[in-house]
Amino acid sequence: MLTFFLRRVAQTAPMLIVVSLVVFALIHAAPGGPLALYLDNPNVRPQDIERLRRQMGLDRPLAMQYVAWAAAFVRGEWGYSYADGRPVMDRLLERVPATLQLVGISTVLALAVSLVVGLVSAVQRGIDRVATVGAVAGISLPVFWLGLVLQLVFANLLGWLPSSGRMTFTGGGAIDRMAHLVLPVVVLAAAHAAGWSRYLRGSLREVLAQPFISAARARGVSERQLVTRHALRNALLPFATVVLLDASIMASGAVVTESVFAWPGVGSLFTEALAKRDYTVLMAFLMCGAIAVATLSLVADVAVHVLDPRTREPS
Amino acid sequence: MITRAPPSRRGTLAAATVLVILLIVAAAAPIVAPYGMDVLDLARRRGAPSLHHWFGTDELGRDVLTRILFGARVSLAIGLVSAGLSAAIGVTVGAMAGYAGGVLDAVCMRFTDAMLSVPRLPLLMIAAAVLDPGVTLLILLVGAVGWMEMARVVRADVQSIAVRDFVTAARAAGARSPRILLHHVLPGVLPTASVALTLAVGRGILIESALSFFGVGVQPPTASWGNMLYQAQTTMSSQPWLGVFPGAFIFVTVLCCNVLGDSIAQRSTAGR
Fold it and tell me: Is A230 an interface residue toward B (CB < 8 Å)?
């Protein structure tokens, strides 16, 4: 167990190094490099740029810059935002709660929907037809377009829900906050509910076709028991893995959803930083995203290893 | 097991038909479009859908339907070519990893995992913002981040095929690795790869539209479905037709790709 865990952690490290190299290379591939923002500004004199370049170590060889940056990142020194001069870590951290709220509630909603739809469509052919159409449609929907259309219908035409933000400017109560949550949560949950319910249905069907299910049926186990106790238990593990591994797609979805609904989370910080070419924020965002995804996939692997003896190599 | 026809035969046919029509219409855009690409109808600016302009006009009086048809060329081209590129990279990486095994396999798959763990859209948004790409570079970028799924499924297929008896027989008959890979293993990968390819087309179109929606993809005056939405998002409440129609085209196209991919998948597993 411990060796498996350590080996798996050891695999994560080189992966993160590859990611950091890609991120670093990308920023330095920019015309004008990380100082592009100042190059465009007529108020910044060439000698100031030269001074900044030396101050930030941009005159050193790329390899050394990478090592310096990576070492600082590991120490938690993520630099300062180009846009407002505040520490990058502060800017990211203050946005985390809003994103966690949005992503958390969406995930719970998507899980609930996909569990119900997946279970029912695995056994009911008629509902399965409808669910199949709905799921393929859900996967194919451009997230931002779904957001815009829902905004149009429910905020502008019907006026039932607020169109953007986390609460009314004057500060609203709990109901106001919940009303602001509805549209972004639905948009972010839609695609995942579709994908996950398909997956659960598929793996349930696979389990239900196995001999031990027929054996249980022959012993007189009720259909309901068969599905919920015998099949679902076997299907849940791969399902959980898929859910955890979808984290990076969730991150992309959050960026889109947050910017459509002006949700003040990490995702809209990213789009703001992108517009301002705020490279320190962008680099930190990508690295944190990759670390989060890598951690979740580590959790998924370890969980499967612990819960499912079949995946362990015979010792 | 009772054999039955794939359940969505009509759906498959419909999806394929829609895609073919879209491709033809996109290719023939200069002929079939009701107006010229940049013709301004100044008398009917911001016009709602009407008999003259089925999908309305934008703030410059350009016909939305016309721009959608011309945008289809860009969006479909990016989807198709980037998917082809992803397939080429994915099949190469997956086949190498699956066939060679050992260190090469480990290195390839760790790299694939690494690429999968970076949130794809933000990475591309940064790359696109930094490099300020034209359509060609955009295709390369979208293709460069879309090969990982392909690599995984191809590797799994290659691994299972490479231990089959006919491969051993080919090796016993003296065939070398490149020949075995090309003539014996890769044909078996075709069904899975074509499914992944179809899905990649839809994903490519979605990614292009997302990039353009954030203003870092296809740049105006070239029209793409995504950048039409980018221009429409601020006026969604007063002129919804500017956003609803391009988005609907993205949705329908991606939907057709996914339906097609699913039915190929069903057919190839039914044949096994």
Answer: no
